Amino acid sequence: MKKLSFLLMMTVALFVLAACSGSGEEEGSAAANSVEASDEKIELTYWYAWGDKIGENNENLVKQFNESQDKIHVTAEFQGSYDELHAKTQAAFAAGNAPEVTQNEIASIGTFAKSGMTQDLTSFVEGDQEINMDDFNPGLMGNSYVDDKLYGLPYLRSTPILYMNTTMAEEVGLDLAGPQNWEEFQEYAEAFTNEEGRVGMSMAIDIWFYEAFIAQAGGSTMNEDSTEVTFNSEEGAAAYDLWRNMSKEGTLKLNSGTEAGEKARQDFVNGHAGMHFASTADLSYLLQLAEEQGFELNTYFMPSGKEAKVPTGGANLVMTSGLEEEKQQAAWEFIKFMTATEQTVYASEFTGYLPSRVSAAESEEMQALYEEKPQFKVAVDQLQNGNARPMAEEYPEIAKILVDEMTRGALDESIPTEDVLNAAAEKADALLK
Amino acid sequence: MALVKDSMGMGERRSTSQSLVSWTRLRPYAMISPAILVFCLFFIYPIGYMVYLSFHDWNFVSPTKEFIGTANFTYLLSNLEFREVIVNSFIYTFFTVFLTIGISLLLALWLNRGGAIYSFLQASIFSPHITSLVSVSMLWMWIMDADYGLLNWALNLIGIESIPWLTSPDYALTSLIMVAVWKGIGFNTLVFIAGLQSIPKDLYEAAELDHTPPWRRFLRITVPMLSPTLFFLTIIGIINSFQVFETINLMTEGGPINSTNTFVYYIYQYGFQFFKIGYASAAGVILLVILSVLTVIYFKVLSKKVHYR
């Protein structure tokens, strides 16, 4: 009996130990197996987020790079969503096998740069005659600099845009010009809503969309220095109240949970919602889905409130820090290639992402595409209203707090809007101190 | 070898026997030293490092770790969100273990007999256990989808309104418990059946001769004879449930509104999404303490009631 209980105790102890030590350390060994033959070549690993069209685009561009020269070989590896990519990059960096080149979602540029995981690229730009930094669209450069140093080049960049099922809009007698402002947006949503459960829009309670609406109301989620949160304001309340009121009227369906974004897309594609907010990056994919489902769609500016503003989004390309000089040079060559005019045109055409270079937007190919599929032009035009995203180190946590509280308010209509936002602000302030 | 032999032959008898004695004494330690080494390297060292980190402010990457004393712990314990995490973990563990063991025991009593149909049923119930948790999570996410899921479709057929299984804070934790129970029943049932089959038949025969009613046979023979199995499954169940991660990561990400956030996911979130390793380690230390205390209590109180043969 004693023996058995001792054995059990040891087994239990092992489980307990395994629980506490095993939780985080299995990640990020993927980079290690990228070493392949061809002894002369410099081997680089590149990590990217998102699959489908976006993933194919990444793989294709890397293939183009490998075929364009014979000194460097890059292995591209898919890592899931932005959050997963960031978590894995960090774990791999701590373990000493981070990829040489990876993506930073633009609001995380500051987090990575300040913790020393990414390489300051300023000297590479200064020492390179080939690269013309002025060619990058100035509206996209806000999330590239940290403390006046360049940490990332604009790669797959986006803004949220409004998608509308025009086939359905014609059926309900709506003007195909689309809603210009919040009032018209509400009217459109009402017109789409019917008794069979169709709504004007199905939308995830998402920090990026909230950033858009609060900016349209004339505010922002954080102050310019990213030292305090500013969403618990008149502007923040106006943006959130618009959602809540529409949700109460049944014209806007607010989704929560891990599949909220996917659900919004399904509702739009299946004809359960007339309109859809999404990144311009989804354009190619949505056009394809719309064709399969047999409806026409068009794209529009986000409806404006007091102001016409949208956040930018997407990812910048960054180099991890602590590389040998040879690898740094190779990584810089790769980054330069991926963000060059030709590749920018390719990526934009393939996915719907913004052409982040002026020369790419003005190129013949892009102009021809805009002629043929005007849906692609909307995001580029809208970029004149583009804002940078907040870059505070704590922003991922603040975003989670705010989305949680807004979800609470969406599920329980009796909580006053002020209380929802103040509760979130109080928790966020505790973090920033 | 030759040298050893030599010295043994030439040396005094006394010292030879002494070295023999000490070797006899040392041998067990020498034999288990590789295991101990591995144990220290992979279990003791990480735990020690975790405790060390829990007193520091570190983002996993910067070269300096700032010593901040017990600040991580005081912040954790005053944090409302963390309290929710503890409550969620206990609720999840209690119901998962209780339901899994209860249902498995009933199933085992029912399926513990010969015949092809029962073997088939045993195998069917066991199949979720060998399915990877990721597949299980994906499957249930589809089944529990609020608008397009199978479960709500079935409920609608019998006139019950759709339930937002995973997207409402009122239901999400329950949904996760359902999945855990569904997955856990197979293994538990199998172990129970094995336990039942090892109970000597003569006990039941004797009871039958005495006309003991079935429920009494169950309470007086089956339960005591099964108690080691019951004990083992409860302990394993508690520890596994406290460590739940995959289903939460895939199905709810701790949400909505923190309603399904449990220990390991919380640790992961702070360590790998918010880059606060010290804080995450402090939560890990608290998990370690809770599990150790639970285990010790369990052994002290319940082991006395367990009947080992």
From TrEMBL, chain A:
Segment forming the signal sequence: 1-18
Keyword Secreted: no
GO cellular component term of the entry, any: cell envelope
Subcellular location as annotated: Cell envelope
Keywords: Signal, Transport
The keyword Heme appears for this protein: no
Gene3D superfamilies, per database record: Periplasmic binding protein-like II (3.40.190.10)
InterPro entries tied to this protein: Bact_solute-bd_prot1 (IPR050490), SBP (IPR006059)
Pfam families: SBP_bac_8 (PF13416)
Family (UniProt): Belongs to the bacterial solute-binding protein 1 family.
UniProt protein name: ABC transporter substrate-binding protein
Taxon lineage: Bacteria, Bacillati, Bacillota, Bacilli, Bacillales
